[in-house]
Amino acid sequence: MTETLFGSNLVAMVTPMEPGGALSEPGLTSLVEHLLATGCDGIVVGGTTGESPTLTDTEAARLVHAVANLAGNRARVIAGVGTYDTTACIRRAMEAEAAGADALLLVCPYYSKPTQAGIVAHCQAVADATDLPVMLYDVPARTGTAIEAATLIALARHPKIRAVKDAKGDLFEAMTVMARTSLAYYCGIDELNLPYLAAGATGLVSVVGNAFADRNAALIAAVGGGDLDTARSLNAALLPLAEAVMRTSQGAIMAKAALTELGVIPHATVRLPLLESPPEHLRRLRDAMAPLRARALAVSPQA
Question: What would the mean pLDDT of 140-153 be, rounded to a whole number?
Fold first, then answer.
């Protein structure tokens, strides 16, 4: 049930932009078609990788509307609506629902560093504001505050809070919460996709998937089918790219660079305070992409 609410092979989509920083409609169309063609069944719009802090409310709603229209019934559209302001989150959630989102991604409030009780109240207030299912986003490296296991267990009692994007990386805690709740877990750290799937995660919310969602689809299928030898082989092939995208500079920067290398989007433009990749980073990215581009996928995403 939860898989149908959010999908399993989700991509944290970048926001294509023109050189001046305006949203790129042609780039968006090309990117969504690329994601769907490579096995993505859930598109996260306006999340961290989508440069959400630099998007206006109008742009965020426009993106959701455009992606929902492009995807149709081929993928779920999950709108990132989290900020440090509960009132703003509620407004964005309502606007995303009106724009056609299928679900919401709600990050732990950042900068404010609320108490765990405050996190519960915040998440419940946003979940109560629409009829959409909610995926919590636990990423303490960015927010400064982790959503503790007891808090996740408490929030799981809310009927609309159905899943977690886990970018904390505490696999023992994730397995504990999975065992004690019905929350679906999605790995939000590309470097740890395989262990999370093997431990029972429903799927992935991937940055690397912007470029190679077909490899992630094959990984999910291999683990689900119990073929761990194939899963380990797929994972090993993806690790250099995960390192290049996620550990060279910043995910949105490098994912856009990868998409321009593939010819999916025409420009790798990012908005300040982000900067485009320097030549040495692009060389590292190209080296990591080369084996994946040269070798056809050995396992069908539908296998």
Answer: 97
d(CA 109, CA 140): 10
Q: Are 48 and 42 in contact (CB under 8 A)?
A: no
Return the HEC string of the chain.
Answer: CHHHHHCCEEEECCCCECCCCCECHHHHHHHHHHHHHCCCCEEEECCCCCCHHHCCHHHHHHHHHHHHHHHCCCCEEEEECCCCCHHHHHHHHHHHHHHCCCEEEEECCCCCCCCHHHHHHHHHHHHHCCCCCEEEEECHHHHCCCCCHHHHHHHCCCCCEEEEEECCCCHHHHHHHHHHCCCEEEECCHHHHHHHHHCCCCEEEECCHHHHHHHHHHHHHHHHCCCHHHHHHHHHHHHHHHHHHHCCCCHHHHHHHHHHHCCCCCCCCCCCCCCCCCHHHHHHHHHHHHHHHHCCCCCCCCC
Q: What is the chain's mean pLDDT, rounded? A: 95
Using the predicted structure, report yes or no on whether residue 228 has a pLDDT greater than 70: yes
Place of tokens 């995403």: 301
User: Which amino acid does the sequence have at 150?
Assistant: A
pLDDT in tens, 45-65: 999 999 999 999 999 999 999
Catalytic position from the list 84, 111, 165, 196: 165
Task: Convert the pLDDT of each residue in 93-141 to its tens digit.
Answer: 999 999 999 999 999 999 999 999 999 999 999 999 999 999 999 999 9
137 classed as catalytic? yes
Tokens of 158: 């809310």
pLDDT exceeding 90 applies to what percent of the chain?
95
